[in-house]
Structure formats: C-alpha cells, structure tokens
Amino acid sequence: MTRRTRAWALMLLVVLLGGVLSACGGSDDSSTVKIGVADASETYWNVFTQKASDEGIDVELVNFTDYNQPNPALAEGELDLNEFQHLLYLATYNAKNNQNLVPIGATAVYPLPLYSTKHQSLAGIPAGGTVVVPNDPTNLARALLVLEQAKLITLKTPGSAFSTVADIDTGASKVKVVAVDAAQTAANLDSVDAAIVNNNYATAAKLTQDQIIASDDPDSAAAKPYINAFVARDADKNNPTYLKLAALYHDSDVVKAVKESLGNDGVLKTNSATDLQQTTKDLQAQVSKNGG
Asked: Do 69 and 118 have their domain in common?
C-alpha cells in the first residue's frame, strides 16, 4: 500500500468512526421523553423529573403559555406526551382537527374558581359589573356554568359543556361577561369585578384561596369531563415508558409536591386508561354532534 493510499484509508476510518460516535450520541438524545406542559416552573415537576430519572427515564419539559400549541406539537411529533388539559378540551381538539390523541393516565380534577381582588363575596359584585372568563370553548362553557350556579348570569337554555356567550340572557343576568385568552384572565383581574382563572394561571399569578368567591365541585360526577390527563398519540398509547410516567404522577412524593404547588383543592383521579379513552370518545361524539 502506497503512502497516499494509506492516508486515504486513515481518513476514511476517521470518518466512519465519527459517524458511529455521532450515532451513539444521537441515541441518548432520542431516549429523552419530551412532555409539553403549561406550568414547567412549578416545583412539583422537579420532583417528577427526578423520580423519572431514578427510574432511568430522562424527561424534558417543554413549556407552553398558549393552550392552542401543545396538542398540535404532540400530533406533529415534536412532543412525546403532554399534560395540561382535561378530557373535554382534548375531545374538542380531536373533533375539530380530525386527530386521535388519547389520554393514557389521569392526574386530577381541579375546581374552576371565580376570583376577585375587589369583592370578598358574590354579594359584593354590583349589577352591571364585569366578569372575565377564558375564551377557549371548553373552559368557557365550564366558566359559564360556574357563573350560572353563582346566580351571576342566566342562560337561555339549560347550561351544558357546550354553552357559549351567545347563550347568556343578558337582560336577566346580573353581570356582563367578557371572554379573553385563558392566559390573560388573571392579568385582567384588577380591572374587572371578578375573573374565572384556570388553576395553573392562578398559581403563576399568585392568587390566593382568600380571593376565591365561587367555584364548581371537582368531585362531582359532572366533573368527569374535566379530569386532567397525560396524553399521547394513539400509536403510543401502550408505550410502557409513557405509561410508567403517567403512573409516576401518583407517587407519594410527587403528590405531596403537587399539593404544595397547586393547593389541596384538586381531587386526584386514578381512572384507567381504558375508561379515560372511552370517555374522550363519547365526548368527542358529542362535540361533533354539536357542530365541533
């Protein structure tokens, strides 16, 4: 073999070795489970990811401030799982986008509270006052039910999971309802009489229990559509690693951290994946029937 031939052979060997090493490095990255969340700064996720690491699972949290983003990111393969939504929100997304994302593990149901920084009770809200609610369809409908139960509004037809602002009988209602992006409900609180604020946004805004003047009952049968869950693509619903992560949410240390971060109002749920998936299918059918 000539000197020139040996040089070319050595260069080829270096290139091949580099490719092997790159492939090895890539396998480590591909083993990371990416989970889309809306509250990555909460300390309970630190406990969760550490517990996952102890089980040999590397978790990367991807935070979203817009509820409209985590499901498309999951559907398009940018995430492996997400955990930010309840079953009705998921069913609505699937119906409107012809998708089949599925819940694989329940987390909890949280009450949907009405907060006020101006009034200490419902009685303090004046006639003609303004209440802000989330504008995404599922949280909007649930918010209207809270306001109806609080006798702040009257709906033209019996309230349901599909009620809209158009269903409000404004002449018979005590307050005016303004729908805004869910992430902006807490920010609007000081300029209105009250606001419905989702749990994670309320926590981020450091709203307190003393500022809650009404809420729904998270432990009632009617709350089942609002069970929050880990969600995966249908093809991954039996992935053992993903199922292990969903179950890990109920580890005693994680539960303790969740309650410290999010409060004790949430009701933890352990519905089976099969039950969650059937409930989502039933809700999806109702969404489609109602024009979703």
From this structure: no
Pairing of strands 228-233, 101-106: antiparallel
CA atoms within 13 A on the CB side of 123: 0
At 118, which helix (H) or strand (E)?
none
Q: What backbone torsions phi and psi does residue 25 show, to the nearest 5 degrees?
A: -60, -40
Single-letter amino acid, residue 265:
D
Q: Is residue 15 part of a domain?
A: no
Choose the final residue of a domain: 163, 190, 216: 216
Q: DSSP state, 113? A: P
- Gap between the Cα atoms of 284 and 220, Å rounded: 21
d(CA 168, CA 179): 12
Same domain, 84 and 168: no
Q: Give pLDDT tens digits for 93-136.
A: 999 999 999 999 999 998 899 999 999 999 999 999 999 999 98
CATH of residue 86's domain is 3.40.190.10
The confidence band for 159, taking pLDDT boundaries of 50, 70 and 90, is: confident
